[in-house]
Amino acid sequence: MYLLYTVLASLFCFLTLKWLKRRRFCTDSKRLDGKTVLITGGNSGIGKETAVALAMRGARVVIACRDEGRAKKAVGEIKTRSRNVDVFFMELDLANMRSIREFCKAFLQKEKRLDILINNAGMPSVLDWTDDNFSMCFGVNHLGHFLLTNLLLGRLKECAPSRVVTLTCSNYKYQKLDFQDLNYNLFPLFTYCRSKLANIYFTQELARMMEGKGVTAYAVHPGYVHSGWTCHFSILFRMVMQVVMFMFFVPCELGAQSVIHCAVSDEVTGHSGGYFADCQPASLRPFATDAGVARKLWEASERLVRLA
Question: Which family does it belong to (predicted)?
Answer without folding.
Answer: Belongs to the short-chain dehydrogenases/reductases (SDR) family.
